[in-house]
Design brief:
This protein is an alpha/beta fold and 447 residues long. The protein contains 16 helices and 14 strands. The chain has two domains: 366 residues, Divalent-metal-dependent TIM barrel enzymes (TIM Barrel); 58 residues, no CATH class. Helix 11 packs across helix 12. The structure holds D-xylose and calcium ion (CA) (2 copies).
Length: 447
């Protein structure tokens, strides 16, 4: 077991490398469907799915909520003599966990991995000290950084926003953090850098200059991109849409809104979407809708894999479980050729009453299995081509003749209007939705 942890202490004793045991296994600490080396199409499951563990939920959050204190013991927080030693213990626990689980990647906020100092300079020093240690552990374990980000929402100075704060001094603090977090991401070979607009939005329009705030956000992102590129960052920038919480209205509401914003500020070449299932739901969309919209716009990037609770409308960040959702998600992702720099980041936390160290493993195992099933179902659907053939046929009237001329922009509006007379009574072709939904259930059960 010793080979799976790199620090001085084992934080998850009694749990070894998680193995694939197949669907009949009754071992809760084994994969039932995720078989990393199994080939699906031309790639292994591991290459397709690019799983990442979210540092903040798994190693920082301890079950604290608005109504009560933390419930999860987290031994890495218990015997440190100061916050920097605590950060190193956390790093050891994280790399032990990720390695035993067999995830390829992790993601972090600056403040997840290193404590904030009294000044920006001290914060940066703390961060880069831990980054050097993380780099050693990445080398020792082969675990890689999917993306880094800056926490621009926890410190009270960000209560009115970060890049969109009405006070310019706060904007400069946000820049200090983003600059250091970009440096950290580059140093660790991160394949992406994420901007989630934590408090970039408003609580009331009565005290907000919406136009100016959005322009400040655009300016800030342009400057951050240019800085990162000047430092040699070749990865992808992500914006992660979310419609609300903590703000009443967040500027990065959903994929369509962000797409318009990126175009407005000339950011569409460098930025892609990091789509979270729970955020899609908060925006009143299906997860599949957000993925398909990003794919259609050529802006798909990465995924924060989790689920919400459709009945309470909060960002509950639960682990993904629904094969229905993972299959539809993987269908869109496979259709556009799979992930490039992105991956499936488990931005999810175990429930407050899940207090056993093994619960964290079981949660991730379930999420990885759910996406492995989704991958296989989506692959089979694409191989079969039944949906694709149906959709192709549905739009066949645009493939030749007048329809094709319309698509190519070779027709005047008067001509289009005039054609109505020629076509007469049309438009009563069944969409066959029920048949197609029934088919999806057949695929899900593998019949
Ligand atoms: C919060 C967001 C956040 C981002 C990273 O709702 O999901 O965790 O993913 O800042
Ligand atoms: Ca997220
Ligand atoms: Ca969330």
């Amino acid at each position: 077991m010793a080979e799976y942890f790199v620090g001085n202490k084992e934080y998850f004793p009694g749990i070894g490398k998680i193995k694939y045991e197949g669907p009949k296994s009754d071992n809760p600490l084994a994969f039932k469907y995720y078989d990393p080396d199994k080939k699906v199409g031309g790639k292994t499951m591991k290459e397709h799915l690019r799983f990442a563990v979210a540092y903040w939920h798994s190693f920082c959050g301890d079950g604290t909520d608005m109504f009560g204190a933390g419930t999860q013991k987290q031994p890495w927080k218990q015997d440190a003599k100061d916050p920097m030693e605590g950060a190193e213990h956390k790093l050891d626990a994280a790399f032990e966990f990720i390695t035993k689980l067999g995830a390829e990647f992790y993601c972090f906020h600056d403040r997840d991995i290193a404590p904030e100092g009294a000044t920006p300079a001290e914060s940066e020093k703390n961060l880069m000290t831990i980054v050097a240690k993380a780099k050693e552990r990445q080398k020792a374990t082969g675990v890689k950084l999917l993306w880094g980000t800056a926490n621009l929402f926890s410190n009270p100075r960000f209560m009115n926003g970060a890049a969109t704060n009405p006070d310019f001094a706060v904007v400069s603090h946000a820049a200090a953090q983003v600059k250091a977090a970009i440096d950290a991401t580059i140093e660790l070979g991160g394949q992406g850098y994420t901007f989630w607009g934590g408090r970039e939005g408003y609580m009331s329009l009565l005290n907000t200059d919406l136009k100016r705030e959005k322009e400040h956000l655009g300016r800030f992102l342009v400057m951050a991109r240019d800085y990162a590129r000047s430092r040699g960052f070749t990865g992808v920038f992500y914006i992660e849409p979310k419609p609300m919480e903590p703000s009443k209205h967040q500027y990065d509401f959903d994929v369509e809104t962000v797409a318009g914003f990126l175009k407005q500020f000339g950011l569409e070449k460098d930025f892609r979407m990091n789509i979270e299932a729970n955020h899609a739901e908060l925006a009143g969309h299906d997860f599949h809708h957000e993925l398909e919209t990003a794919a259609a716009l050529g802006l798909f990037g990465s995924v924060d894999a989790n689920r919400g609770d459709p009945r309470n409308g909060w960002d509950t960040d639960q682990f993904p479980m629904s094969y229905y959702e993972t299959s539809l998600a993987m269908l869109t992702i496979l259709k556009i050729g799979g992930f490039t720099t992105g991956g499936l980041n488990f931005d999810a936390h175990i429930r407050r009453n899940s207090v056993d160290p093994s619960d964290l493993f079981e949660a991730h195992i379930g999420g990885m299995d759910a996406f492995a099933v989704g991958l296989e179902v989506a692959h089979r659907i694409i191989q079969d081509g039944k949906y694709a053939a149906f959709v192709k046929q549905r739009y066949a009237s645009f493939d030749a003749g007048d329809g094709a001329r319309f698509e190519k922009g070779q027709m005047k509006f008067e001509e289009l209007a005039g054609l109505a007379k020629e076509y007469g009574s049309v438009g009563f072709t069944s969409g066959k939705q029920e048949r197609l939904e029934n088919l999806l259930n057949q695929y899900l059960l593998g019949l």
